[in-house]
Design a protein that fits this description.
The complex is a heterodimer of chains A (643) and B (229).
Chain A (H helix, E strand, L loop, with lengths): L2 H4 L19 H22 L6 H21 L3 H7 L6 H7 L16 H29 L10 H21 L4 H10 L8 H20 L16 H4 L3 H29 L12 H33 L12 H35 L6 H15 L17 H10 L1 H15 L8 H24 L1 H7 L3 H31 L5 H28 L13 H31 L69
Helix pairs in contact in A: 2-3, 3-9, 3-11, 6-7, 6-8, 6-9, 6-21, 9-11, 11-12, 12-13, 12-14, 13-14, 13-16, 13-17, 13-19, 14-16, 17-19, 17-20, 19-20, 20-21
Chain B lengths: L16 H36 L16 H23 L7 H24 L9 H32 L9 H28 L29
Classes of the chains: A mainly alpha (643), B mainly alpha (229).
């Protein structure tokens, strides 16, 4: 039985089965992208020949052609087109799109099953983190001595920009992408996401974005760092065009994913799953995407205005035409600071979720956790200008923005208290996932407190643009965010792959990464406090020791990540088969068998208690027994309750 | 958009077409939130640049100011189209095609608004690269074109579907969903028109001699900065 078997189509309304749609895959996507990119390039060459902005126009239009052609080749436009002509996809087409009986091939198609999309996201994130991490190793190698000459200034500058952007984009999707897609529908007792085709669309847009982003390396790089500040961006090489197009594609993907995930959570929770019975991870994911929904269009708008400046000679950011670089900074940071919490909240929520499981205790003060998340979401849109203290924009507002920024530490502290309270006097089962909780607490304390330093206006004037800032945001985004994502991966790996993650190599990786991380970025704090500026290829000899320490630490991180990668791949292929519920957790995703049937639940669950009833006497009542995938489903009244 | 093909009409699944409709409505509203953020960002950019007026060059003169008639005419046509759409929804009956009475008019109206916006952009008495003012006005109009292209796509789709009786019923959620979008693009056009109008009071200098837009407004020379070209 499949999702499409359950939701039967009306044969009168459907169009004919099959067609070219079934032959589309990643190969045809690449082909379509290359062909349309070439066509666009040739056409625009004729139209924009000898104009002032010819290079930028050609580069941008070619990249847009690639993205459109790739998505068309993947079949992303089939559904909308058939809707337009009134010949909807048929039941058989929907089954095909869901990936039924397609084996590994479904991972290379426009597959709509949320579990496939979740795995695709996981692989995509790993690829992006691998690429960004490799660039980080190159950067750190260059910085091992004051004038190493390992990278030229141009290459170094470009690498710093592309590394930053890759990592930011990867960390934004690293929890909500893989786990928000794979786990959340299971966790809320749904059969799929609200809009399966939009789900696939959001994923494949990101795949289309990657070549655009990395084409920057061959088009002069991104000289203005990941923030893309003007006026450098206005004057930069064609690599900036890659940056603009990549951001626009990413923003569209984020909006689509945000609407989809939010709708799924609001409208598709199982019967009985009230908001007080909804797992905290679901709150974390929803907070993240709700925050991203209005934030990223601001960033997209900033890039659209930059497109007008660069391709048409517009005056948005050019002062002698009445433009203003502060406009870019405002639009950017209106996205940029909420984005920090887009990354952090779901990662910390995942750790809260698993801490209750491994401490065998109810989540300490569920309401404080929810209120803290809401508080962070609310305050995060009022703090953006603390990134602009040193820019000279609206000095009268420095005080209010300092206040709101410092206030945000209060709900953030609430999340700490929830985790600490949950662990307090618990009999903790020390797994790799749980160790990530310990590491997150340590790292995020350092990242958070240094963040309060930086929100303080006088201190920010001193530290702005220094390596201290670089160390601070790595402590939050990597030390807390990425560590949380690794914890989530270790926790849900058995459900996602049907295999247990290897223990020994997991622990080896953990210690290598965490020791290396602290060595790297404590060293960076040191040189930052001494005054070393960031994004500078050659530095004063006085900072040599700190940089050498940081580089050695970075190599530890690199080796640790490789061990983790090996562990994941080896476990995925040959690992010990995972039982249905290896951790004895109480949330719904652990009630479905491995491998998970296409429709997730043969019988839709009914929730009768909260998800964290560990250590509480069992209430008499119906216990939900997982039904084999092929079993005939009964009427809803016969469904059991969640155990 | 064709989740209707997944709708279960039988007893097992608890979901009815209207449940799908509710879900889509939530999704569309959320996408509109994202789009609204984008529209507000464009409007903010216009007002911010005008407010800061960097180097007195937001509109230093030498080129004209966009006619205020055009955005309001386009907005009025869009609003009329939306009302026609609503009329189509009101008179629609299950199994019939009465919706087309208003739906086709709405579609034609949105197409007209699209053409008018493009004509408006051709007739701007400035080039996009002249100054921040011209860039900002141009981008607001381009944003409207983008909205109208999507609207025409959706309007055409819903007319074809009703004409082919794929989408039936007085309150069919496809029809209502497209109606939400129609309403939103009208609001977006209104925001654009208001932005240009509110900000227009203090900008503008003598028109170029070959001013192509008879509706474009001229302002006294005294209000122009010394940086006028």
């Amino acid at each position: 039985m499949t999702v499409a078997d359950i939701y039967k189509t009306d044969p009168v309304k459907g169009g004919p089965d099959g067609g070219v749609m079934r032959r589309l895959n990643m190969g045809t996507g690449i082909l379509g992208g290359v062909v349309l990119a070439l066509i666009f390039n040739l056409v625009i060459k004729e139209l924009a020949d000898d104009t002032v902005h010819e290079v930028d126009v050609r580069a941008t239009v070619t990249m847009v052609g690639w993205a459109l052609g790739f998505m068309a080749g993947m079949g992303a436009f089939t559904g909308p087109f058939r809707w337009l002509v009134g010949r909807d996809l048929t039941h058989a087409d929907e089954v095909f799109l869901a990936g039924k009986d397609q084996g590994v091939g479904r991972y290379f198609r426009f597959t709509t099953d949320h579990k496939v999309v979740g795995i695709q996201y996981l692989v995509l994130v790993m690829v992006m983190l691998g690429a960004g991490g490799t660039m980080a190793m190159l950067i750190r190698t260059d910085l091992i001595s004051p004038n190493s000459g390992f990278l030229g200034p141009q290459t170094y500058n470009s690498l710093v920009g592309i590394h930053g952007l890759t990592m930011i984009l990867a960390t934004i999707i690293m929890v909500t992408g893989p786990f928000g897609n794979f786990v959340v529908p299971l966790m809320i007792g749904a059969r799929d996401m609200a809009f399966p085709r939009l789900n696939a669309l959001s994923l494949w847009l990101l795949v289309a974005m990657l070549p655009v982003l990395y084409s920057a390396a061959f088009l002069g790089g991104i000289p203005m760092g990941w923030v893309g500040y003007t006026p450098i961006a206005d004057q930069g090489p064609a690599g900036v065009d890659s940056y603009m197009v990549a951001i626009v594609i990413f923003a569209i993907s984020t909006a689509v994913a945000g609407a989809n995930i939010t709708t799924t959570i609001i409208t598709m929770r199982a019967r009985g799953m009230t908001w007080t019975r909804t797992p905290i991870f679901v709150y974390g994911v929803m907070a993240s995407v709700v925050l991203a929904l209005p934030a990223f269009p601001m960033f997209m708008a900033a890039e659209i205005l930059l497109v007008v400046d660069r391709l048409m000679g517009g005056g948005f950011y050019v002062p002698n035409r009445g433009g203003q670089p502060w406009l870019y900074q405002n639009l950017f940071w209106l996205m940029g600071h909420p984005e920090v919490y887009v990354i952090l909240i779901p990662a910390v929520a995942a750790l809260m979720e698993l801490t209750a499981v491994f401490a065998r205790k109810p989540l300490y003060s569920f309401r404080v956790a929810v209120l803290s998340i809401i508080g962070i979401v609310g305050l995060s849109v009022t703090v953006w200008a603390h990134h602009m203290f040193a820019s000279g924009w609206a000095p009268d507002l420095n005080g209010p923005f300092m206040l709101t920024t410092e206030m945000i530490s209060i709900p953030t502290g609430g999340l700490f208290l929830v985790i600490l309270g949950t662990m307090w006097r618990g009999r903790i089962w020390t797994t790799l996932a749980m160790m990530c909780t310990y590491a997150m607490l340590w790292n995020f304390i350092i990242g958070g407190i240094t963040g309060i330093y930086l929100s303080d206006v006088p201190l920010d004037y001193q530290l702005h643009g220094s390596m201290f800032v670089t160390a601070h945001f790595h402590y939050t985004l990597m030390g807390a965010g990425l560590t949380g994502a690794i914890g989530a991966m270790a926790y849900w790996f058995p459900k996602m792959t049907g295999r247990m993650l290897g223990k020994t190599s997991g622990f080896v990786s953990f210690w290598l990464v965490q020791i290396g991380f602290n060595v790297t970025f404590l060293g960076m704090f040191m040189v930052g406090l001494e005054g070393q500026p960031r994004r500078v290829v050659h530095y004063d000899a006085a900072y040599h020791t700190g940089n050498t320490i940081s580089t050695i630490g970075a190599y530890f991180i690199g080796v640790g990540m490789l061990v983790l990668l090996y562990d994941m791949i080896a476990s995925w292929r040959h690992g010990e088969p995972a039982p249905m519920n290896p951790w004895g957790a109480k949330t719904l995703e652990w009630t479905v068998p491995n491998p998970i049937p296409l429709e997730n639940f043969a019988v839709l669950p009914v929730v009768t208690e909260d998800a964290y009833g560990y250590g509480e006497p069992a209430e008499p009542g119906p216990v939900r027994v997982p039904v084999p995938a092929g079993a005939e489903a009964g009427p809803e009244e016969d469904e059991g309750a969640m155990a | 958009m064709s989740t209707e093909s997944l709708v279960n009409k039988e007893a097992f699944a608890p979901e009815e077409p209207e449940d799908f409709g509710d879900r889509w409505r939530t999704g569309v509203r959320l996408l509109i939130v994202a789009d609204a953020s984008f529209v507000v960002a464009l409007s903010f950019s216009f007002l911010y640049l005008r407010g800061v007026n960097t180097q007195a060059s937001f509109h230093p003169g030498g080129t004209g100011v966009a006619s205020l008639w055009w955005p309001w005419i386009v907005t009025a046509v869009m609003l009329a189209s939306y009302l026609a759409y609503r009329y189509g929804m009101d008179v629609h009956e299950a199994g019939r095609r009465h919706f087309l009475n208003g739906g086709v008019v709405a579609l034609v109206g949105m197409c007209l608004a699209l053409v008018l916006t493009i004509v408006q952009m051709y007739r701007f008495p400035f080039h996009v690269s002249d100054n921040a003012y011209s860039s900002a006005v141009w981008v607001l109009a381009a944003g409207n074109v983008f909205h109208l292209l999507i609207t025409v796509f959706l309007g055409l789709g819903i007319v074809i579907r009703v004409q082919r009786r794929v989408t039936t019923g007085a309150g069919d959620w496809h029809v209502r969903l497209v109606g939400i979008w129609f309403a939103w693009v009208c609001v977006a056009a209104l925001i654009g028109a208001l932005t240009v109008t509110v900000a227009n009071g203090t900008v503008g200098c003598p028109l170029a001699k070959d001013q192509p837009d008879p509706g474009a407004r001229s302002v006294p020379l005294s209000s122009c900065s010394s940086a006028s070209r």
